[in-house]
Specification:
Layout (H helix, E strand, L loop, with lengths): L11 E6 L8 H10 L9 E2 L7 E2 L4 E7 L7 E7 L8 H4 L6 E3 L6 E3 L9 H5 L6 E3 L4 E3 L5 H4 L12 H5 L5 E5 L6 H9 L15 E3 L5 H4 L14 H11 L1
Parallel strand pairs: 1-11
Antiparallel strand pairs: 1-10, 2-3, 4-5, 6-7, 8-9
Bound molecules: iron/sulfur cluster (3 copies).
One iron/sulfur cluster binds next to helix 1 and strand 5.
Length: 244
């Protein structure tokens, strides 16, 4: 078992806007590209051109088609990566101390040289945010691009996670969610940002923004989306589908 540090004042994380995500996967590609050559072992790709390709991705986007009763089908795009939980079960379950949460900024990382690939942290994570790299034999997860955000060799505008830098719709925001006056905290307050699966008591730092309430949308099949309150990933989706 690995102990968690006291909650950090600084809580770096992402705010993801489900209203403006178009499911383009640019963030998935940028994440893979950056993290394949920097922090830790490369991210594997196996059978890339075979019948059953598989690989390691630290950020994935799931798209769901939902069918309203009296309107055309709608697509919901849902980006998913580590939420850098304050109360991270993936850390406390780790038998070697390889998984840890940084006291200074709250980022959850894996020390790959101490990881034995047991997979317990992936089992403990309720969000499916960890990926055991079958080729490297170590656990992988989002690092919030820790090798970009503090990298003085990069231009200042590039010192954000690769996914945030590349998102063409500005659906991904990065900042200090421990600072109530930060741009990301204000965004969460203004837009009713929420925790994913709060009933798991993991206290995720990352937040999601629901679709915005717009006059034109209220009378449309998208209106049910406006009421969505996340109390579970599966539950979130189920309730969403029920509303259609
Ligand atoms: S790059 Fe932005 S718009 Fe595209 S899938 Fe990722 S979050 Fe959504
Ligand atoms: S999302 Fe999963 S992997 Fe990330 S800190 Fe939370 S429990 Fe750990
Ligand atoms: S796979 Fe690695 S990081 Fe995860 S619990 Fe096992 S030793 Fe810890």
């Amino acid at each position: 078992m690995t102990a968690l540090p006291p909650p950090s004042a600084k809580k770096l994380g992402l705010v993801i806007d489900l209203d403006t995500c178009v499911g383009c996967h640019a963030c998935v590609t940028a994440c893979k590209g950056w993290n394949d050559q920097g922090y830790g072992a490369p991210l594997s790709d196996m059978e890339a051109y075979g019948s059953a390709p598989c690989g390691t991705f630290l950020n994935r986007v799931h798209s769901y088609e939902v069918q309203p009763e009296d309107a055309a089908p709608q697509i919901i795009n849902f980006p998913r990566s580590c939420l850098h939980c304050d109360n991270a079960p993936c850390v406390t379950v780790c038998p070697t101390g390889a998984s840890y949460k940084r006291a200074e900024d709250g980022i959850v990382l894996v020390n790959e040289s101490a990881c034995i690939g047991c997979g317990l942290c992936a089992w403990a994570c309720p969000y499916g945010a960890r990926e055991l790299d079958a080729e490297a034999g170590v656990m992988k997860k989002c690092t919030l691009c820790v090798d970009r955000i503090y990298n003085d060799n990069l231009p200042e505008e590039d010192r954000v996670p690769a996914c945030v830098r590349t998102c063409p719709t500005g659906a991904r925001h990065f900042g200090d969610l421990g600072d109530p006056d930060s741009a990301v905290s204000r965004l969460v307050a203004e837009r009713g940002g929420y925790d994913l699966m709060p009933e798991m008591e993991t206290k995720p730092v990352n937040k999601y923004l629901p679709p915005r309430k717009k006059g034109a949308v209220e009378a449309s099949p998208l209106a049910p989306l406006l009421d969505v309150q996340a109390t579970g990933f599966a539950g979130w989706l189920d309730r969403l589908l029920e509303k259609f």
